[in-house]
Description:
By secondary structure, this protein is of the alpha/beta class. 42% of the residues lie in helices and 17% in strands.
Amino acid sequence: MTMESKITISVIVPIYGVENYIRRFAESLLGQSYQHVQFVFVNDGTKDESFNILKNTIEHEYSYLKDRVVLVDKENEGCPISRRVGLSYATGDYVMHADSDDWYEPGAFEVIAAVAESTDADIIYFDFYRGDRRKYEKAYSVENKKEFIRDIYNHRACGAHWNKCMKRSLYLENRLYYPKTSCAEDMCLISQLLGCAESIVHIDKPLYHYCRDNPQAVTKRSPKFRRFRAVDKFLNMYEFQCESGENESDVSVIYDDIMMKAGWSAILYGFDFFKTRQYLADKIRRIKVRKDRDVPILAQYLTKIYAYFACSAK
């Protein structure tokens, strides 16, 4: 890669229920100074004026960008599927995903592209703002990416798509499990992409603003609903990886964490994971209790006891 070359970046943005936020987001993205960006907006069948506001903003304020804008209309299927549809339209060297109720810092893409140009990294990630507070991300590298994956799963690192820029080839050249519903779908896919990455770079600058005010966000759903969907996704990913013969992949570092959280969630919320996943009780019985899991120590012991009797009852 020569210094004269220009890194191209595709930004994929699902649109649903964000009419109060979309103009702010669009202006922060379309107003970026970096010129080699493709904008892929996917209308996920929104019922409000979000997509119309976006199209009017492009038409009246950013019409000169039309050759770099892709507008996709589709029925409502949820954010994960919209992102995957958007990915099929992406042409950039790198891919980024954004939430349309958030916004970017000015000059963010200049910074990201410069790092991509100088490092050729598979995955680039950066700090961000949550509300008025800057969130500092730990600097991981490919040498400790297993720690990165575990920290994401156990909520010690950000597992969101929106603070990461990834080579499009990671999606094209690897067999990945794509979640179909929201709640932890970012963490699930990011874990796999990190497992495939051969180079990881951290940018010590906050380049993105994560908005917590949208009442329609999935994070506003009940904890029980979100926990079920999240645990179910990671169990599906585990099964997908096993069927693909990826038991020894870097993602396998979280398999024990997945089992323990699934078992504890089944006890805490009454989910039927022990019935629907016949392997779960036996797996949990074999897992060592660890203090660095998202599940508390006492809960881990209780889960192992429950799993012992669940196995005995068969």
